[in-house]
Structure formats: structure tokens, C-alpha cells
Design brief:
alpha/beta, Rossmann fold, 2 domains, 9 helices, 36% helix
Length: 276
């Protein structure tokens, strides 16, 4: 039930048809008896500015999460950034703090790594190939470096973006070997699609799993459809796969802490997310 005390939360992007946050957070709010609604907002860059102004002025509007293509654009519109946001160059959570300042954080990367860990995949000491360095990909790159991978291969068609990410990671994580490649030389333990390729029917594969060892874990961060063409191609070769929804599910406890909503345990929230 929505009433005069209902709090507003949103996920902002262009498009938003693929997002799961409103569905998952609706289930979480119901279980926690939170008088709040979480809605999708389909906005362009001008609309993003309007949403942020809404955060500053609508008193029951508490926070947003940010999805493609705004994760990097929104950075310049905020007053303060977390270290994770600075290292990744992007933001996927924004709230208005008590001093009237908009604060941005980035948990896509830590959510992705946590999702892998919860399914028995550990990246510390691993060789990883990451394809796509947009907002989500840049965050995952920073989180992988933070988790101390043995080697990180990066592939990005936009040369300027690739250089910026490479330099930023070198500043924050100078001990992690990082290379920009068309495809990795030698075996990799994980290959991750962080591009939008796979959102729409007929999209080309971001890479061909057949070029990799069958022991490589193939990961996709696309949530809808769950079974992307990449995932299907990897499974047809008998390779292990990791679905995109795990990245979001693992972030739900982080969202709740970000907006100061109490809950009993991470596992209780993850169970709700898995069922939503």
C-alpha cells in the first residue's frame, strides 16, 4: 500500500526494461515491512539531471541506483564520491546526505566478485579476461584488482576509454599486472562479458567461448535475458557459466546499508533476492 508516508527509490537508466532492481527490492521491502516503493525511471542525460534535482528537493525521495548508460556520466553531477567510485570512474548508487550533498558509490564490482564467491568461484590469484569497460565493466575491473587477481586482461573497443581505465587502475592498484588486449594470450580462469551485447535477440557474441579452454568460467553481467547467447554457447561446449543476476542479488544488502535500512543478515536478504 502506498500512502503519505511512503518513501521513494528508483533505478535510472536508458533503457530500463532489462533491470531487476524494482522487482527484487519490492520483495525485500515487503519482507522487511518497509513503507517504500522502488520504481524504474527511463531517462536520458537531461532526465538524469532532473532526477538528481528531485533527490535534492523531494523530501520522501531517498536514493537511486544507476544503470546503463549513466554510470560514468553521473559522476560529474555529484558532490562526493566513495573511493570505489573514484577507482572505477563510475557510480551506481546515489543518495542525499544530511548536509544536502549528493553522495555516489559504486558496488557493481564488489557485487560481481561477491556473487562469484557465493557460487564457489574465487578470483584471488586468477587470470581474468574482462570484455567491456563501460560503467559496470570499469567497476568490475577495479574490484578484480582489489581482490588481487594474478593478471587482468582488458578488452574495450573505445581506445580512449580503455586508456583511461588502464591508467586509473595503475594508479590505485600498481601491483596488479594489467594488459589491454584483443584477446588474451594463454589460459584464463574467468572470461567476463561486461558489454551490452546479448541484451537484444540477434546481438553478436561479445567473444567466442571456443577460443578459450573448457576450464574457463564464462560470466555474463546481463540479467535479462538470463540465458544469453554467450551463456548458451558456453554451455553447449560443456563450460561452467555464471549468470548476470548474481551480480545484482549480491548487491542488495549493500543497497540496504547505503540507505540505512536495517536487516538481520546478508543471507536472509540474499534468499529473498534469489526467490524474487
Amino acid at each position: 500500500m502506498v500512502d503519505g508516508n511512503t518513501l521513494l527509490y528508483a533505478t535510472v537508466g536508458d533503457p530500463v526494461a532489462q533491470i531487476r532492481a524494482p522487482q527484487v527490492m519490492g520483495a525485500v521491502f515487503e519482507k522487511l515491512a518497509v513503507n517504500g516503493v522502488w520504481v524504474p525511471m527511463h531517462v536520458d542525460q537531461a532526465g538524469l539531471l532532473a532526477v538528481l534535482q528531485g533527490l535534492r528537493t523531494v523530501r520522501n525521495f531517498r536514493a537511486i541506483t544507476v544503470t546503463i548508460p549513466h554510470k560514468q556520466t553521473v559522476v560529474a553531477m555529484l558532490d562526493r564520491l566513495s573511493v570505489a567510485a573514484q577507482a572505477s570512474g563510475g557510480v551506481n548508487m546515489v543518495r542525499l546526505d544530511n548536509d544536502g550533498k549528493l553522495f555516489g558509490d559504486m558496488v557493481d564490482g564488489s557485487g560481481f566478485v561477491r556473487g562469484l564467491e557465493l557460487h564457489g568461484h574465487h578470483v584471488q590469484g586468477a587470470a581474468v579476461w574482462l570484455i567491456g569497460l563501460g560503467g559496470g565493466g570499469s567497476a568490475i575491473a577495479a574490484a578484480l584488482a582489489e581482490a588481487r587477481v594474478a593478471r587482468l586482461y582488458l578488452t574495450e573497443m573505445n581506445r580512449e576509454r580503455a586508456t583511461a581505465v588502464f591508467e586509473r587502475l595503475g594508479h590505485y592498484y600498481p601491483k596488479v599486472p594489467i594488459e589491454i588486449v584483443n584477446q588474451p594470450v594463454g589460459r584464463v580462469d574467468f572470461a567476463i562479458n561486461a558489454t551490452p551485447s546479448g541484451l537484444k535477440p540477434g546481438d553478436p557474441l561479445p567473444f567466442d567461448p571456443a577460443i578459450l579452454s573448457r576450464e574457463t568460467v564464462i560470466c555474463d553481467i546481463i540479467m535479462k535475458p538470463k540465458e544469453t547467447a554467450l551463456i548458451r554457447a558456453a554451455e553447449s561446449r560443456g563450460m561452467r557459466v555464471h549468470h548476470g543476476h548474481h551480480m545484482l542479488d549480491s548487491q542488495i544488502p549493500m543497497y540496504l546499508r547505503f540507505v540505512n535500512i536495517p536487516f538481520s543478515s546478508d543471507e536472509s536478504i540474499l534468499e529473498i533476492a534469489r526467490q524474487a
